[in-house]
Amino acid sequence: MTNITPDIVAEVPHGISFQSVIQFAPAARNEPLMGNNAIAGTGAGSFSRPGVGGSSPGSTSNGNGFGFQVAGGADSENRYLVEGQDTANVIGGYSHTDVPFEFINQVEVKSSGIEAEHGGAMGGVVNVILKRGSNSWHGSAGAQYSANALNANQNSPFLYYDPTDNGVAALGQDPRALTYQQRADRYRFVQPYFTIGGPILKDRLWIHLGVDPKFTSVGRSVNFGSANNNAGVQNFSTDQQTYFTTARVDATVTQKLRVFASWLYQLQRASGAVLPVADSTNGLFNPSSTNPLFLYQHGYGYVAPNQTINVGADFAATPKLVLTTRFGYFFENYHDFGYPTTGSLFSWLTAGVVPGNPPTALLDNHGNPLPQSLQQVSGFFSTGTDQTFTLRNANKHHQFDQDVAWFKSGLLGTHNFKFGYQLNHVFNDIFQHWNAPNVQLYVGQGNFFSQGGDTGTTNCAALQAQNGLPICAGLYGYLNVQDLGSFGTASSFNHSFYAQDAWQIGRGFTINAGLRVEKESLPSETTAGGFPSKPINFGWGDKIAPRIGAAWDVFRDGRLKVFGSYGVYNDLMKLNLAISSFGGQYWQNCFYGLDTADLASINVKFGAGQRYCPGPSTGTANFAGGVTPAGLTFLENQNFRGTEGVMPGLKPYRQHESVFGTDYAITKTLAFEARWDRRRLDRAIEDAAIFDSTGSETFLIVNPGFGPNAVNLSQTCTDPTIAPLGCPRNIKAARSYDGLEFRLTKATSKNWFGMFSYTYSKLRGNYSGLTSTDLADGGGGRNAPNNSRAFDESFFQYDANGRSSSGPLGTDRPNAFKGYTYYRIPWKGGRTSTNIGWFQTLYSGTPMSTYIDVGDSFSQPPFSGGFPVYPEDRGKWANISLVPNSAGVLVPTITSIGQRRTPWYIQSDASFKQELKVNKNNEAQVLTFEANVINLFNRQAATGFYSQLDSAFNQSFLNPGGQFSYSAFENPYDWKALLSNTTGLSGPDAGKPIIGNSQYGKPFLFQTPRSLRLAVRFTF
Known about the structure:
- This protein is mainly beta.
- Helices cover 4% and strands 45% of the residues.
- The chain is built from 7 helices and 51 strands.
């Protein structure tokens, strides 16, 4: 365990909340691919607001630029506690409560050998211990400040397609890839605070109080030029206020009974939540400059309260028997405000015009220019938009713990028994959807609808006959009325018992043994059609987690210890499945042929339950007046989000761990520790496609590679006339972590302290965990516990050699050096001092892995795909060049394949403090001036490179064998040759070459730029 003690908190540079010091533990890291992605708006190419509480469950990140990985465990696999109460988001499992350091006494990070009293820790356990009152009054007051003048440009570059270029698909030319560097924003951050604690009644009753509001403002100027009626330069701003408050009361009721109650509260409110892209520093076209100004109204915002309450009692029944009772309550909510909620919201999924001076209108399906009303660029919205407009997203976590500690001697030594019961009740109430009915336009020549069933086939044939077109489209294309959202409540009660014993046998030998058993269920958010209320229900015999360890004090003087342990760890399931797979989410598309340019006549209205495209495949959209407008021809209603069943015999998500190590006290102030940590994933829980003997596909929640998911019964696997090679068994989820850690700790003496560590590790497999770090899954950082993209189709896990595409995972860093230290320079007899703190990281780069679409693809930048495979395994990178073939079409041609990593991740953080003791009669009264610098040398190395080889703008994918075939995809095929002929067939069946992605191999994620905070504080 790593304790970040009060002196470390005070002297070593860090951020403004406790999460910033998790990385102080040797096995823990802040990993960009655990948090930074495009879906949430924090990554490359995203022009939307950052991911916050309004983000759609299963399709977002934690909203930060990074997530917290502990010994290979994913961000959502850690436990984030405040005074023992779990404060992780109950849907996604990521840390969602901030705690200012002015409220913190210390932070504990348990990274291995975790005791049986902790459940659900596949990575680590982080516990924040708050300050409390004592028998003398103490407190502090001060403020922190930062501004753009103190910082480097906080807008990192992003990679995107040039919006003025559509490429030439017929010649294999992808649109140009551009690296866009935004201009710096105007920025101001102020955080004043005040804390005080002391006795109400000495030796009986103590109190601690704190307030710590945070005010952040971002200003941005954007030149809209002649757009928006010659709008020219316009100013925008985001204003965010976060109000932190804490209170704790401790009391000694009797000599045997102590009680406490604590309260931690944060309320965040933001206005101006949507900002346009800032102007480019090098004159590139601003992709926001063609959008209407009303998309960026300052009135668009959100409110998000968050609180944690803990009460507890410690009762010493006898000197050897202590009872501990804890009750905790965690609550968070989120809702948006200010967005328009009436009328239709029109969005252009394809361009009707190419920007320019003058702009060029694109053509309709008869070869004529599109009408003026349809001439908008791709991505244009007709009114203020929020795809996940949230009326409420309320999460609650009740936690009850009852422990009994019993010290007993005489049973072949001494025993420190601990028995406990824990209740976890998690609850979610969510309602979110498009702020107004969304009408998505696919306008222009060549855009056509692809039917999904018999209704679409029939109606497409009629439309083609009506318009005389060879494609399923109207004169101007087609449209989709997208009805997308999340609605429902979910509640589950989970129980656990544990027992553990520290048995001191004698001669310095101790055995630590424990056992944890759990009873857990996961609810559904619908019981329609007989769907079960508890689709997942683990009994007491399903989640059994033994822990065993031993430690030997070799010389029985505490100087040299040798230890080892083995443990089994089961995940505590999050509510993401209840929402996204068990009926909480809906997604239906009503498609229409478009033969009218009168958009005002297309007035979609919210209906019952604020739905506007419900029903079966023949169900139409809900229009004002109940009549389909003239010029629209109904094609099909496609349902993309039905409920998913559960595999019979489903087992818990489980991992086992072995640890061996030694501690040696070199001197009284210098200690050395070495440990080896081995972790293996036994089973995962994910959604996957299951096929019956007729080839029918359904999705189930499974243990990948086990039970019904062990084999693929699709016809393209079992029919020897189609699949003579058949299909191999489905691949199991695999993740292995091996880490050898060395740590040298210098205790505080002679005015300095230090901790230095080196970890050599390997993180390998085919599955990164409950937070996906695969760039192929939405750009990395996707927080979708138990229903990521990893196993949706069985061939996703196969390489082009017909083997498992296992290898180094996205956050594998073999070499990790880190250290922190501070040095105190006293002056004037100790009346003043200069303190210098330092935190240093040097990490190997992460592996770069080429992936390409096989079998199908989507065409929705910035991250398309959807059917990705790693043709040469994870950790293998293909260098390519574009070579014209005999027809002049550019063909991606492999020049070499090998291992490649991102640059080393190197960062130096520093703090500089000047302390002045202002009262000779009271040593506690100290005035401090401080500068805290994160990334002192402003290193902005790339942390992610775009890795999709096929175009993300045009539909382009490999199709071994010329048809969609699991057998062809899961047996060896020559993927290099298929780049020039996507089917490998000859004659009229030959496929076109792959369209190479112009973004491939270019950096798109970067290290966070330098930031500087100034602070003044007075402690007393």
